[in-house]
Design a protein that fits this description.
The protein is mainly alpha-helical. Helices cover 53% and strands 6% of the residues.
Length: 167
């Protein structure tokens, strides 16, 4: 997963303008495709950094937030049977799922920075980010699922595959 242009292609002024634009409330925009592209690039860059991280460091030792223990406990209380290895879009996007996810995520408002910010999430944890394996989720959902995947060993496949390829 490599970014050819990303924010660097915008130059200093463009990147500064993008950072300012991304800090404004969503109500300030009317489906501006340039803003949507900046959000997409930011989400892509986050995904790229995260995948490189779990490819380089044993996921069991990763701490993604100061609240990992709290997020994990609450997640497993709320989503006891969620299949972390292979998520389905319905696990996050169905009306029933949204009714459960909404209060779960809202409990972290003010605790997780940009808790409802859009983030890319892998459906199959043994594969990388690509169009077929990626879904848009909130940052709170991303943290909950990825903290659980790291603690429960689901992301070990990515780490071990990367480690073997380097040997």
């Amino acid at each position: 997963m490599a970014s050819d242009n990303g924010l660097a292609a915008l130059g200093v002024e463009g990147a500064s303008a993008a950072a300012h634009a991304l800090s404004l409330p969503a109500e300030s925009y009317d489906n501006d495709p340039r803003v949507e592209m900046m959000w997409a690039m930011k989400a892509y860059n986050h995904a790229e950094v995260y995948f490189n991280l779990i490819s380089s460091v044993d996921p069991a030792f990763l701490k993604l937030t100061k609240l990992d223990d709290t997020i994990y406990s609450s997640f497993r209380e709320t989503f006891k049977d969620l299949d972390l290895k292979l998520l389905k879009a319905e696990d996050l996007k169905s009306d029933e799922a949204k009714e459960t996810w909404r209060p779960f995520c809202n409990q972290f408002e003010g605790l997780i920075e940009d808790f409802n910010y859009g983030t890319l999430l892998r459906l199959d944890c043994e594969k990388g980010y690509n169009e077929e394996n990626t879904i848009f989720a909130t940052r709170a959902q991303f943290f909950a699922i990825e903290i659980a995947r790291n603690r429960e060993g689901y992301n070990n496949v990515v780490y071990n595959t990367s480690k073997a390829a380097k040997s």
